[in-house]
Amino acid sequence: xxxxxxILQFALAASLLFSTVTYAATASSPKDIPVGSSGQxxxxxxxxxxxxxxxxxxxxxxxxxxxxxxxxxxISPRINVxxxxxxxxxxxxxxxxxxxxxxxxxxxxxxxxVNANQIAIGLKQEEIENEMPEDLVHAKWLKENQKQxxxxxxxxxxxxxxxxxVGTLGAKVSENATFNVTPTFVVxxxxx
Length: 192
Description:
By secondary structure, this protein is mostly beta strands. The protein has one helix at 2-18, and strands spanning 54-55, 63-64, 74-75, 79-83, 89-99, 107-108, 118-125, 140-141, 147-155, 160-169, 180-189. Strands 1, 4, 6, 7, 8 and 10 form a 6-stranded mixed sheet that branches. The chain has a 3-stranded antiparallel sheet with strand order 9-5-11, with no helix packed on it.
């Protein structure tokens, strides 16, 4: 047992003997500090904000009708969005729950092109202030019950924006039934 303690003490002494202590240089010292010498270094960093805040409605009703003369067959209110953060953010849809159970023989279109028994809904950023879009150019189509990574808009710090629900439907889709579309939005720091 004594022999074991002596060996452990010898190993500890040897490790202390061959170890070196290093310190960082001072902020005013631009030179390298060799291992074994001493000095001080001041480290300065910045803190990036981690709280992102965007205001938008949680419920948006809309009507859809084939009788509308425009390419866009949806009437929706203006969806006001405001970035309350002090950095630019992007707003993406990552999933859309679609329930067409009250629409008989109707299926969903993920790309905006519909046949007689299909419906497609998307979101479109406002192009002309307070004016509902008539066409479907630049619409971001919602994909039915699957993951998606669709950027809806980018807002600068404290910027306001707006979007509308847009869509189209086939000639055989009933205009009197209801259905539910629930997109999941994610707000993140913009990569721009």
